[in-house]
């Protein structure tokens, strides 16, 4: 069987059209009745043989979908070579009496990276990685009621299924080179999505559809810091010579700027070494470092493509270049020392006439800066402009150095391994606060039972990696789950030991009114002296016991003082 969505080895135009249909508009809203066309003629003949009519419809675009899917990520950021974790929710709606059972097949998770520019409906996909659920998810066998047929479809169990997954993103460039994310201008961005899709088939009519859902994520390239952060064999250098006077003059200032490597990390200081030879009669008073971002847009123009190749010519386009200053650092000349003062403001004293001086200064790179190599639609470059100035009545002199900016995630990724594929993937019910009567409003499970729950252990407790609902109504399902939880809690929870010291007890005055009135009406067997001594001893014992007070629910936000 061939893939229905975003396959490898097909034209970029075909993938772009499918991606546009799957993602919907700017608000992720699908066009009613949206469809995708099968890949080849064999798929079309198979659809006609099964009774379907050409294009495959999308379940999310239907007024009432039979199957709904969702993908929840444990972390939205991932580096090539690491694992993308989370869980997939598959909801099979209960069929009516007139509807036939539903069949499912070929569940997949895809990570797709694409470029987009304004005034262009198409998106260029440069990264795509896909893995079947059968290889990366657990508990998939509990989704199906019967074995699969020759086409791979199997009847699904109605209800909600939660499948934890751990998907590895290869470190090589087999599925494309990740670039990270950036949003430089309105509509100009590099983005990624994680999408789950499942093929759906009606057992009666044979009509096929696709249930899909996606969420935005981040994919960063893995970069070896010992390679990109070492000093270059020859520093990057730029030099110029120019006069500071507006009128022509033979006296000039020689400026040389250099950086010791090409690649820098966003958020760090970028130091520039400056060498100045001042042959003029003016003093150089300031140095300015400017980080300039250059964004180049490539708008495809098919009529400029003279070739007949299968893929479009990347040079058949109209270019648009934009420059923007994203950071700036100014080094002003320091104040001169004066009589009676032990110091002065600043550390750089400028470059006096006839002086030759070498010094260095830095500029702080913005944490969201990122250089993007040219793709089909977009290219982002950065450069450092080093400017010397002698005042407002003189001309400036400057040089430009190209640099490359990477993200810190690429050299120090989040630790990830596949030793615990279901860790953090299951959903845990929230524990409610303890009520004034000292009773929990919701059933809870001890922390050590969650690992067993994810693996299907502890019979009687609903498994969060399989169907949570049976073939009954939703109200009956919830009642069944509560009854099972209460029975299992008595079996798995051991009695909690009570502290040996004094215990603070909280009573509900509305509920214990009758008991207190009965106690007050009972005759006392001792006199007033005995009563006062007893009250004093009880108060002393309560006060002494507050030092070793232990509450059953330390996370509760209810404040309780001493109750007498």
Question: What would CATH call the architecture of the largest domain?
Answer: Sandwich
Structural class comes to alpha+beta
Unreliable segments of 5+ consecutive residues: 420-482, 513-517, 519-528, 532-536, 541-551
Question: What is the tally of helical segments?
Answer: 9
Number of spatially distinct domains: 4
The rough form would be described as elongated
CATH class annotation of the largest domain: Mainly Beta
* Gap from first CA to last CA: 76 Å
Fraction in beta strands: 25-35%
Reported for the largest beta sheet, the result is: 9 strands, mixed
Percentage of residues in helical conformation: 10-25%
Query: Under CATH, the topology of the largest domain is which?
Result: Immunoglobulin-like
User: What's the gyration radius in Å?
Assistant: 35 Å
Concise overview:
With about 575 residues, the protein is α+β, with helices and mostly antiparallel strands. It has helices at about 10-25, 40-50, 135, 225-230, 410, 450-455, 475-490, 515-520, 530-545; strands at about 35, 55-60, 65-75, 75-80, 85-90, 100-115, 125-130, 155, 160-170, 180-185, 190-200, 210-220, 235-240, 255-260, 265, 270-280, 285-300, 315-330, 355-365, 380-390, 395-405.
């Amino acid at each position: 069987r061939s893939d229905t969505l975003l396959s490898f080895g097909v034209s970029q135009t075909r993938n772009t059209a499918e991606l546009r249909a799957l993602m919907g508009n700017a608000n992720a809203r699908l066009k009613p009745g949206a469809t995708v066309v099968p890949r080849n003629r064999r798929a079309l003949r198979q659809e006609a043989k099964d009774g379907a009519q050409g294009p495959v419809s999308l379940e999310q675009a239907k007024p009432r979908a039979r199957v709904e899917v969702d993908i929840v990520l444990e972390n939205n950021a991932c580096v090539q070579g690491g694992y993308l974790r989370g869980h997939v929710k598959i909801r099979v709606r209960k069929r009516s009496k007139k509807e036939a059972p539903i069949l499912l097949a070929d569940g997949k998770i895809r990570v797709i990276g694409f470029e987009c520019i304004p005034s262009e409906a198409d998106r260029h996909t440069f990264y795509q990685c896909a893995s079947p659920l059968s290889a990366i998810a657990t508990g998939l066998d509990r989704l199906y009621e019967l074995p699969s047929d020759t086409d791979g479809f199997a009847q699904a169990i109605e209800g909600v299924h939660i499948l934890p997954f751990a998907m590895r993103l290869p470190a090589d460039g087999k599925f494309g080179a990740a670039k990270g994310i950036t949003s430089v201008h309105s509509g100009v961005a590099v983005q990624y999505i994680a999408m789950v899709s499942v093929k759906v088939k009606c057992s009666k009519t044979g009509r096929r559809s696709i249930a899909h859902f996606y969420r935005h994520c981040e994919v960063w390239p893995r970069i070896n810091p010992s390679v990109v952060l070492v000093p270059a064999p020859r520093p990057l250098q730029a030099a110029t010579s120019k006069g500071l006077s507006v009128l022509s003059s033979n006296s000039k200032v020689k400026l040389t700027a250099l950086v010791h490597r090409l690649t820098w990390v966003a958020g760090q200081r970028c130091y520039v070494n400056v060498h100045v030879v001042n042959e003029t009669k003016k003093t150089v008073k300031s140095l300015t470092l400017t980080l300039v971002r250059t964004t180049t847009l490539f708008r495809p123009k098919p009529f400029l493509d003279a070739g007949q190749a299968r893929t479009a010519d990347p040079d058949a386009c109209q270019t648009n270049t934009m420059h923007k200053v994203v950071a700036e650092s100014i080094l002003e000349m320091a104040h001169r020392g004066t009589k009676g003062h032990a110091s002065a403001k600043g550390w750089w004293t400028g470059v006096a006439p006839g002086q030759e001086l070498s010094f260095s200064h830095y500029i702080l790179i913005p944490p969201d800066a990122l250089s993007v190599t040219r793709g089909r639609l977009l290219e982002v470059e950065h450069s450092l402009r080093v400017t010397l100035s002698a005042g407002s009545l003189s001309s400036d002199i400057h040089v430009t150095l190209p640099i490359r900016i990477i993200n810190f995630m690429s050299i120090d990724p989040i630790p990830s391994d596949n030793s615990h594929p279901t860790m953090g993937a299951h959903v845990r019910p929230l524990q409610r606060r303890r009520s004034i009567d000292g009773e929990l409003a919701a059933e809870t499970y001890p922390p050590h039972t969650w690992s067993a729950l994810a693996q299907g252990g502890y019979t009687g407790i609903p498994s969060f990696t399989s169907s949570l609902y049976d073939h009954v109504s939703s109200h009956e399902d919830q009642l069944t789950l509560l009854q099972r939880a209460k029975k299992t809690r008595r079996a798995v929870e051991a009695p909690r030991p009570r502290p040996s010291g004094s215990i603070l007890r909280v009573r509900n005055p509305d509920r214990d009114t009758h008991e207190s009135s009965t106690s007050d009406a009972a005759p006392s067997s001792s006199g007033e002296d005995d009563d006062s001594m007893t009250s004093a001893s009880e108060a002393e014992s309560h006060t002494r016991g507050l030092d070793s007070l232990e509450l059953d629910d330390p996370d509760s936000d209810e404040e309780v003082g001493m109750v007498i």
